[in-house]
Prior knowledge:
There is one protein chain. By secondary structure, this protein is of the alpha+beta class. Helices cover about 25% and strands about 25% of the residues. It is globular, with a radius of gyration of 14 Å. The termini are far apart.
Amino acid sequence: LQGRATSPYHAKPLALRRCMGNLIDNALKYGTNAHLRIDDNEQAFVLTVDDEGPGVPEQRLEQVFEPHFRLAGQQQGYGLGLGIARSIAHSHGGEVSLQNLRVGGLRVTLYLPRNAD
């Protein structure tokens, strides 16, 4: 874990715990390690989770947020975690985004604005 929260984030704590838990659990499911980084300032709280898994084909990056979607051959879980995490982020005015890493693996970024409108 790199970084730290500089001040409390005012939100629904159980929902955010589930959101972050889903992102970390997903990273550990598809890779042996998860690398977490927190960037926090007066504008936003950002959690970045990098895994060491196979990544996701570019054309499927948005599909993984759909309920029950799983990549072929990956039968772990129910295919709900990322969709739930994104829904929770949206309810707080934020976003969950995905990006394949050049060295392999997937980067999941949770962005939560400090002043959600």
